[in-house]
Fold:
Amino acid sequence: MLKEGDKAPAFELQDQNGKTVSLGDFAGKHVVVYFYPKDDTPGCTKEACSFRDSYADLTAKGAVVLGVSADSPESHAKFAGKYDLPFTLLSDPDKTMIQAFGAWGVKKMYGKEYEGIMRSTFVIGPDGVITKVFPKVKPADHATEILGLL
Structure:
């Protein structure tokens, strides 16, 4: 997993509207990149709604929010529409960005181990350097934690 002080890897992925988005699009801004396992699941919905409810405050502080999972743009569009998510959701079906940030690894559930997306968040400064890493996230209050940081 990337650390604070590391340069954020460049990426170019499709969003929920099929538009290509890259890190360079947000040069000079704080970028909050949060990785989550799957659209429309309980924990991921809580986390997304937490960002939605804090979105005005986050943007007032000059931050951009990007949610990333391996789900398709179509799945992201449904998820964003269902919960009125005002921020960008990026589709990474090949897991290139997920792996570049180190958000892919071994997880445990019900005593079984499997590989998957680690719920984690990276705050990237205006200079493209990672200023804060949250390797473990509590979905319900995570956006408030980010606001406190900014």
Residues 51 and 143 are 5 Å apart (CA to CA). The mean pLDDT is 94.
